[in-house]
Design a protein that fits this description.
With about 60 residues, the protein is mainly α. It has one domain. The longest helix has about 60 residues.
């Protein structure tokens, strides 16, 4: 009985540990994906900002 109970606890511990590891891996993978999207969005904003500054400069040259 004790060995059966010990095996049951051991199996439950292994399942819990595996589930925790899987969730940890999934969160890490999701955070990397979100980080890449964040960097890409920042890069687009920087390029867009530079284009707008250049456009303002060209308008300034037309009127001066």
């Amino acid at each position: 009985m004790e060995t059966n109970l010990e095996n049951s606890y051991k199996d439950e511990y292994i399942r819990t540990k595996a589930r925790f590891d899987y969730e940890k891996y999934h969160r890490k993978k999701e955070s990397r994906k979100n980080q890449k999207e964040k960097y890409l969005k920042s890069l687009v904003y920087i390029i867009w900002g530079c284009a707008m500054l250049y456009l303002l400069y060209r308008i300034y040259l037309i009127f001066v």
